[in-house]
Design a protein that fits this description.
The chain has helices at 5-15, 22-35, 40-47, 52-58, 63-79. The protein is mainly alpha-helical and 85 residues long.
Length: 85
């Protein structure tokens, strides 16, 4: 076997995902790692990127992860008694 194009096309069709690309799976994998708390450096090493800039383009934080980050800051402020005066 020299390429996986025929097999990939058959698998996408069977899964009902005719436009899914292998590249899309790399982006999803990177995003899953980052949203699971892995650092960009870890993801960079796993994906074999030479630059963290490339990894940043691949990994996208979910809305939930961003909301949790913002809530943690709010909670910290609440424990400090509110805004500094």
């Amino acid at each position: 076997m020299t390429t996986i194009h025929k097999v990939w096309h058959r698998l996408r069709k069977a899964a009902g995902l005719p436009t899914l690309r292998l590249h899309d799976l790399r982006h999803m994998y990177a995003s899953l790692l980052v949203n699971d708390g892995r650092t960009l450096y870890e993801v960079q090493q796993i994906l074999g990127h030479s630059s963290p800039v490339v990894t940043q383009r691949y990994a996208h934080l979910s809305t939930r992860a961003l909301q949790e980050a913002a809530e943690s800051a709010s909670q910290d402020l609440g424990e400090l008694g509110g805004w500094p005066r």
